[in-house]
């Protein structure tokens, strides 16, 4: 009997060799979210763009508040599914955009990416929807964007929630080697399902894995290996350069709205960490220290730590995470006065 025939049926069914790899379009065509996707058309940098977004009405008794969910670098609006279900049931209206360059939104051939530009795009979307004031919830790279949005539009930001945000340290200033956009592009072209899974297991989920996570691996791998993979990789490279070169950590003291920090303590995320020398690598992405330091810098910060969770606590332990989030949303502090000139 051959080795292949001797393997258990479950092993054969789960083996990458027996599965056809999913392939999705440049705008994630072929991959469905759990909520209807809408499109906001606008002009930016002399070109017509489309931002995909979810707009989910409260399924419970409406409380009059809107939450804007901002995804991370390797996430999409669709990966907020569990949070949208819980928060909608609690009475919140939910708006979750795919930022330009990501997921189901436009992938421009040329675009000057900045957190200011993405914040302005998000503000334009909210204006289009008639939303004058909202709570921003940003995860990972979305935390950097939410911070920039809150700094640009403080009167429109009711509350700020940062879920394992990156950008709690300045990797460039710490000595992480520079990668050119061409180098990032070459790196992104090598994206594979196995590489995504290995990275997410160690960083996002603290060494654990659930079959539920495979859907999101399939989403990213299919997007990065589809017919638009060169355009996807190029936009990804531009976005990595934005993340590396545009720190927000120095401006935390300017945040005047109540801010909730939800931090998985076993997170080790740091952009460019893989290229850093060993002695520097060991000093990067220390979230138990970074979360506390951010809480000290932000005037009205409340810090909630999840001792055993990684970079994506909302997906790794959704019940615990959402309990803490709902409690934090319901116990807002009064806004502080701006500093005197």
TrEMBL record:
Domain AB hydrolase-1: start-end pairs: 66-317
Residues forming coiled coils: none
UniProt xrefs under Pfam families: Abhydrolase_1
GO MF term list: hydrolase activity
InterPro entries referenced in this protein's UniProt entry, alphabetically: AB_hydrolase_1, AB_hydrolase_fold, AB_hydrolase_sf, Epox_hydrolase-like
Transmembrane region(s): none
Keywords annotated in UniProt: Hydrolase, Signal
Superkingdom assignment: Bacteria
Record's signal peptide: 1-20
Protein name listed in UniProt: Alpha/beta hydrolase
């Amino acid at each position: 009997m051959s080795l292949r025939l001797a393997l258990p049926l479950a092993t054969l069914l789960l083996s990458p060799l027996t599965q056809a790899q999913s392939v999705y379009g440049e705008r994630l065509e072929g991959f469905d979210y759990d909520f209807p996707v809408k499109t906001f058309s606008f002009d930016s940098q002399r070109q017509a763009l489309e931002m995909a977004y979810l707009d989910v009405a409260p399924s419970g008794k409406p409380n009059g508040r809107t939450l804007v969910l901002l995804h991370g670098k390797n996430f999409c609006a669709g990966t907020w599914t569990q949070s949208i279900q819980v928060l909608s049931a609690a009475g919140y209206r939910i708006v979750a955009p795919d930022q330009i360059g990501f997921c189901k939104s436009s992938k421009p051939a040329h675009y000057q990416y900045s957190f200011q530009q993405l914040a302005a795009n998000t503000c334009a979307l909210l204006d289009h929807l008639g939303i004058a004031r909202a709570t921003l919830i940003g995860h990972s790279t979305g935390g950097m964007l939410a911070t920039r949005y809150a700094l640009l539009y403080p009167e429109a930001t009711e509350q700020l929630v940062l879920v394992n945000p990156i950008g709690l340290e300045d990797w460039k200033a710490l000595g992480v080697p520079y990668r050119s956009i061409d180098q990032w592009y070459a790196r992104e072209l090598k994206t594979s399902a196995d590489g995504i899974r290995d990275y997410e297991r160690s960083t996002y989920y603290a060494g654990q894995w659930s079959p539920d996570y495979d859907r999101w691996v399939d989403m990213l791998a299919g997007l990065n290996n589809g017919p638009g993979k060169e355009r996807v990789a190029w936009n990804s490279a531009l976005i990595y350069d934005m993340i590396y070169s545009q720190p927000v950590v120095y401006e935390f003291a300017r945040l005047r709205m109540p801010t909730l920090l939800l931090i998985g303590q076993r997170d080790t995320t740091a952009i460019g960490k893989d290229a850093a020398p060993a002695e520097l690598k060991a000093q990067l992405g220390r979230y138990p220290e970074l979360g506390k330091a951010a809480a000290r810098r932000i005037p009205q910060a409340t810090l909630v730590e999840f001792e055993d969770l990684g970079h994506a606590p909302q997906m790794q332990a959704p019940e615990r995470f959402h309990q803490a989030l709902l409690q934090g949303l319901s116990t807002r502090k009064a806004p502080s006065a701006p500093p005197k000139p």
